[in-house]
Amino acid sequence: xxxxxxxxxxxxxxxIELLRIVGMILIVAHHFSVHSIFNFSPDTVTVNRLWIQxxxxxxxxxxxxxxxxxxxxxxxxxKIKTSKVIKIWIQIFTYSILLYAIFTFINPELFGIREMLSxxxxxxxxxxxxxxxxxxxxxxxxxxNKLLNNLDKQTYKQMLVIFAICWCLx
Length: 170
What we know:
There is one protein chain. Helix content is 74%, strand content 0%. The protein is globular and about 50 Å long. α2 (14-35) packs across α3 (47-56) and α4 crosses α7. By secondary structure, it is mainly α.
């Protein structure tokens, strides 16, 4: 049992953690199915082929899960924390440079000015699309929050329907 209000903010929500784990598994399954080499004949339908195609859907669902979790925690955030922006940017930059250095060391043919710039400016070049998108989402979240928190319930529902039609049906 928490002793103070500050203890309440440090309690982890196991249901959110479980959802995050499910999202990670779905994304890993998606990457496995998309980036592995499977030789299925385009003329035949097999259980294995259907399973691999089903796993490919996991990436989109996993990304949606992470965005929803982010929205859940960011909706009450009134302002941007500069330290968090810097932390996210440093993480993206460090991993981008580190991975580029490792892969270039393994295969020097990967070295090029365009690739180097892309890895030194990972957010601008959207080298890692989800990290870049999350970075921008974090920066604009206080403004989105002001918009969402000032909508009446009916307008909010209408906006959700429009978004659902745009992103799910179209």
